[in-house]
Amino acid sequence: MAAAMELRCWGGDWGLPSVHTECLIVLAYAKFSGAKVTVSPIDWTWKTLTATVPELLCGDAVIQEPTHILNFLRKQRFNADYELTARQGADTMAYIALLEEKLRPALLHTFWVDAENYAHLTRPWFASRSPFPLNFLVPSCHANTALSRILLTKGEAPLHRITEVEGKIYSDAKECLNLLSYRLGTANYFFGNSPTSLDAFVFGFVAPLHKAGLPSSPLQSHFRQLDNLMRFCDNILAVYFSSDHPCPPPPVQETMDANLQKLTQLVNKESNLIEKMDDNLRSSPQHKPHRPDPKPSLASEKNSSPA
User: Fold this and answer.
1) 51 with 42: CB under 8 angstroms?
2) For the Metaxin glutathione S-transferase domain, which residue ranges apply (predicted)?
């Protein structure tokens, strides 16, 4: 009997099974190949900061990164590419490399570097799915990683700053989307009547761009002019994910482990101590009563008499 497989990933929203590109790739391929995986969202847990997702657990094996996970599934006889010719296999590798080189930098910039998108969509979403105090750390860590990755791959001379590479990365991304649209044509999938690993990768890259409510995105505007790519995403969601529903947030008491409880208690104690010290300082005789420049805390207002 085959060992049970568990997939750790970011949870879903915006009508998607996951908002995370790499997780979407693996989720889609698992559906295409018929692999039975138990999905375990890392939302509201400490793994939002410490885990590398997607992460597949099978027996004693722990596999990370989409390419490695897909190779592992193929070895378990879950192969969505078994009907591909050698030429189609080579095309698959070429298009995946194109996605990584041309489209990923623009997606990272759109979701994590663009100030308006980050402030109004990306940061609030990831903060809301991370427990205190990680909700302050997780979004900024992802944003810093995204910026570093863009500059590492696209910041070659003479382009050294993010403002200097924006035009280049968005031009490359639009060209990549146009090539994908041309290759797909009027078909449902890129090779024949069944989805393959290339369809999983393309879906993972473009589905968030299709579904996210981005307040500012010229790349999304360009994507929405490519009707066949939008239809491609909607078809996969309807055929393979229509019965899936995002997991509701678990009760805080269940997601908060012992370490988080201790840290929360410590923060509360420190906050109470600071409030007591502040009250003592305000009531001491050497201080004249006055309204402080910064606003007092709610607890201080309740304990003090009206001016």
Assistant:
1) yes
2) 173-236
For residue 22, is pLDDT > 50? yes
Measured CA distances, 69 to 72, 90, 275 (Å): 5, 19, 51
CB 125 within 8 A of CB 13: yes
What is the distance between the alpha carbons of residues 36 and 187, in angstroms, rounded to a whole number? 27
Question: If 0-12 CB within 10 Å is exposed, 13-18 middle and 19+ buried, where does residue 122 land?
Answer: buried
Question: What are the structural domains, with CATH classification, of the chain?
Answer: 5-253 (1.20.1050), 257-303 (no CATH)
Phi/psi at 39 (5° precision): -85, 125
68: left (phi over 0), alpha (psi -120 to 50) or beta: alpha
The secondary element (H helix, E strand) that includes residue 269 is helix 258-283
**How many CB atoms neighbour CB 302 within 10 A?**
8
**pLDDT, greater one: 51 or 289:** 51
Cβ of 304: how many Cβ atoms within 10 Å? 14
CA 111 to chain centre: 9
pLDDT tens per residue across span 220-234: 999 999 999 999 999
Residues ≥6 apart with Cβ < 8 Å to 183: 95, 190
CA atoms within 13 A on the CB side of 91: 15
Q: Which residue has the tokens 């879903």?
A: 12
- 88: how many CB neighbours lie within 10 A of its CB? 15
**Do the bridges between strand 5-9 and strand 55-58 make them parallel or antiparallel, or are there none, so unpaired?**
antiparallel
Q: Which residues contact 131 (CB under 8 A, 6 or more apart)?
A: 44, 45, 46, 48, 252, 255, 256, 260
- Two tokens at 143? 């944003």
